[in-house]
Every structure is written in structure tokens, then in C-alpha cells.
Write a structure and sequence with these properties.
The structure holds two protein chains of two kinds. Chain A is of the alpha+beta class. Chain A contains four helices and 13 strands. Chain A starts with 9 loop residues before the first strand and ends in an 11-residue tail after the last strand. Chain B is α+β, with helices and mostly antiparallel strands. The chains are: A alpha+beta, B alpha+beta. At the A-B interface, α4 of A face loops of B. Chain B: One of its GO terms (cellular component) is cytoplasm.
Chain lengths: ~210, ~200
């Protein structure tokens, strides 16, 4: 597995996705770094691959953009020939690319979306290209700081508002501790009705202990 | 991985009308991880002179203590406070002493001399002094600080205006550096008083 090459742009990152009754909530910070310089402080790391299927990108910006573009293309083709794709199908495509090219990629991707057969589902694809369906998933360099918080706070059967608060608080904590994460929080609520985007600017981030 | 970028940090100093200002961030990190948000990098040398020490945190602490010792000894022997220009040379020699195994800090000195004339300078990690008339910058955010200071600084700013200018320069520069920030501290030195203020800033 490769790391970032010198000069390559890094999506340091904190990303997250949570499944709830009617769909999924996905969220991400907005920082892109080149070394210690913040190249983009308002990045959109939530990328559409189909109408109600999104991915959260972490790792190399170039690698994840390229992979997401390819999956987007495959899903366009699939939907023309076979109708709406399912989320596990999209996740499977991501997995194939990430696993078969593991030596050349630095990409940690979380796929989240809604489809008729499964309702909402979250699929975590960490660095080696394994695939894990989880009730909620966290990823990126900032996620290491919030494993304990997420395990302690997550409950089954949360409603939409509770999930949004869960994602917002978790990402705010990660952004506070991780130098490679920061900026604003972007979230998307994906349900049968489509995608609703939420934007939390830097001055509205939840504030925790900052001793 | 550069040793100067292990802990992160930023310091800037500016000259105003009969006053100087020195400011620093408050982050202590271990590469990408933030450990503390209460690690300011400016230290008082005399009532009218401050030293800023960005760089490797262990050397920041050690040199702050060494300079405190040297300044106290100077005062005992000379029976007067050390002048800012003299302190700058003291900093320079202390660093050059370690020419081939240097302290990993790039200090900034700011103060008023005995005639209350403003003085600022910075040095590199082996003691080369840069005497500036306008502003000096140091730390992992130095490039961003150069841009901000070059645009915002103008000569003969009054203390209140200098405070605004140096604060905006520091805050906006560190917002483009992932190794600095998490709080900021600004000290304004005038002939009558020294005021240190803590700024509310982004915690990311």
C-alpha cells in the first residue's frame, strides 16, 4: 500500500456516515492540505455517484476523485441498462477498484445511500480494499480521535435529528484534535426523497472542552 | 518530516508609533495531533522586552529558561535591564554556540529601548539576526504571515490599531496552516504599559 507522494494533496479528513430508519446521514470536514499548508479550506468531500448514493472521500485527493469518477461512470452505464443501482452494488464497485489497485492507491472511502431493497445502508472501505457494512462508520485521520466518543454515544434506532447531532458533534471533536481536519462541516441527508445538504460554518461548530 | 514542523507554531512582531506588538498562537501538537491549546510561545524578558520562540517545543521551553537565566544574570552584573538590541545579540550568540547541533527554534525579539524607541528583529535557528523596521515573522506559518503582514501593515500605527493589524495578520495566517492556531495571544508594549490579550479563534 502506498502513502502520499511528495507534493501530493491530502484529504487529511474526518468523515462519517450513519444509517437511520429512512436513509443515511453522511458528513465530512472541509480541509485539504499540501504538507502543512491548507490548500482548500472549503472542500466538498461528499461526492455523488448516483441520485441517492454518495461517497465520503479520505486519503489522497487525486486517488479518491479518480476512483469516484470511475464508479460514477459505471453507475451511469448500469442505470441506463438495468435501472436504479443499489448501494451494495456501488460499494462493490468501489471495493473492486480499491482492492485490485491497493498498491497504487491511498483511499479510504465510506459509501452511504438509499435504495428500495435495503433502505439506508453504510459501507466502509478502508485502505486495503475490504468491505464492511456497518450501522455507522467513521474514517480519515481525524476518526482515530473519536472512536471512543462514537462507541459511547451511538444508539440503535436514532431518528434523523439525533443522527445529525451525533455526526455534528463527532466531527467537531475530530476537527478540534486533528490538524489535518477542519474548516466547515458538510452533511447530506439521503432518503427516498433525494438528497438534502446541510452546511455548518466554522463559527457554528459545537464547542466542547478546549482546555 | 521536518523537525521544525514537529510541534507547529507561529510568532509575529510589528512596529507601531512608539509601540511594538508581538503575537503567537497557542497550539502544541505532535505532528497532526493537537495535544494542548495552552502553549503560548512569547515570554517576557524585561518589563519592556518580549521574546517569541516558535519551533521544537522542548527547545522552546529550554531556551525560555536559558534566556530567563541570562537576562537575570545580566541584571545582577550590570545593575540595569538589558536593552532589546543587546538581548538580540545575546540570543544570536546563544544560538551560534550550537552551530553544528542547533536549537530548533527561530526566535523573535520585540521591545522598547531605554528611550522608548521600538525595536524588533528575528533570527534563524543558528543566530543570523534580521533587523526589520516593519515586521518579522517566524514558525510554520511564516509564508502565510509574510503575505498577511505585507498587505495589512502600514507605518505609525497607534497601539489600538497595531493590535487590530497584528491580530488579523496572525488569525488569518494560521487559518491556512494546519499546525498552528487553536488560540492566539497578543502583547502590546507601550512606554506606559504592557497589555496581553487572548484572542478567541477557530479551534480546528
Amino acid at each position: 500500500m502506498s502513502g502520499l507522494k511528495p507534493g501530493e494533496v491530502n484529504l487529511g479528513t474526518s468523515i462519517m456516515a450513519v444509517e437511520f430508519a429512512h436513509g443515511v446521514i453522511i458528513g465530512a470536514d472541509s480541509r485539504t492540505t499540501t504538507g502543512s499548508y491548507i490548500a482548500n479550506r472549503v472542500t466538498d468531500k461528499l461526492t455523488e455517484v448516483h441520485d441517492t448514493i454518495y461517497c465520503c472521500r479520505s486519503g489522497s485527493a487525486a486517488d479518491t476523485q479518480a476512483v469516484a469518477d470511475i464508479v460514477h461512470y459505471y453507475l451511469q452505464m448500469y442505470s441506463v441498462q438495468n435501472g436504479k443501482p443499489t448501494v451494495p452494488l456501488a460499494a462493490s464497485l468501489f471495493q473492486e477498484l480499491c482492492y485490485q489497485n491497493k498498491d497504487n492507491l491511498s483511499a479510504g472511502i465510506i459509501v452511504g445511500g438509499w435504495d428500495k431493497e435495503n433502505g439506508g445502508s453504510v459501507w466502509n472501505i478502508p485502505l486495503g480494499g475490504s468491505l464492511h457494512r456497518q450501522p455507522f462508520a467513521i474514517g480519515g485521520s481525524g476518526s482515530t480521535y473519536i472512536y471512543g466518543y462514537c462507541d459511547a454515544t451511538y444508539r440503535d434506532g436514532m431518528n434523523q435529528e439525533e443522527c445529525i447531532e451525533f455526526v455534528k458533534n463527532s466531527l467537531a471533536l475530530a476537527m478540534s484534535r486533528d490538524g489535518s481536519s477542519g474548516g466547515v462541516i458538510r452533511m447530506a441527508i439521503i432518503t427516498e426523497k433525494g438528497v438534502e445538504r446541510i452546511f455548518v460554518p466554522g463559527d457554528k461548530l459545537p464547542v466542547h472542552w478546549e482546555g | 518530516m521536518s523537525i521544525m514542523e514537529y510541534n507547529g507554531g507561529a510568532v509575529v512582531a510589528m512596529v507601531g508609533k512608539n509601540c511594538v506588538a508581538i503575537a503567537c498562537d497557542k497550539r502544541l501538537g505532535v505532528q497532526a495531533m493537537t495535544i494542548s491549546t495552552e502553549f503560548p510561545k512569547t515570554f517576557q524578558a524585561t518589563p519592556k522586552t518580549y521574546i517569541g520562540l516558535p519551533g521544537l517545543a522542548t527547545d522552546v521551553q529550554t531556551l525560555a529558561e536559558k534566556f530567563r537565566f541570562k537576562v537575570n544574570m545580566y541584571k545582577l552584573k550590570e545593575e540595569r535591564e538589558i536593552e532589546p538590541r543587546t538581548l538580540a545579540h545575546l540570543v544570536s550568540s546563544t544560538l551560534y554556540e550550537r552551530r553544528f547541533g542547533p536549537w530548533f527554534v527561530e526566535p523573535v525579539v520585540a521591545g522598547l529601548d531605554k528611550e522608548n524607541r521600538p525595536f524588533i528583529c528575528s533570527t534563524d535557528l543558528i543566530g543570523c539576526i534580521n533587523f526589520a523596521k516593519d515586521f518579522v515573522v517566524s514558525g510554520t506559518t511564516s509564508n502565510q504571515l509574510y503575505g498577511m503582514c505585507e498587505s495589512l501593515w502600514e507605518p505609525d500605527l497607534e497601539p489600538e490599531d497595531l493590535f487590530e493589524t497584528i491580530s488579523q495578520s496572525l488569525m488569518n495566517a494560521v487559518d491556512r496552516d494546519c499546525l498552528s492556531g487553536w488560540g492566539a495571544q497578543v502583547t502590546i508594549i507601550t512606554p506606559d504599559q504592557v497589555i496581553t490579550r487572548t484572542l478567541k479563534s477557530r479551534q480546528d
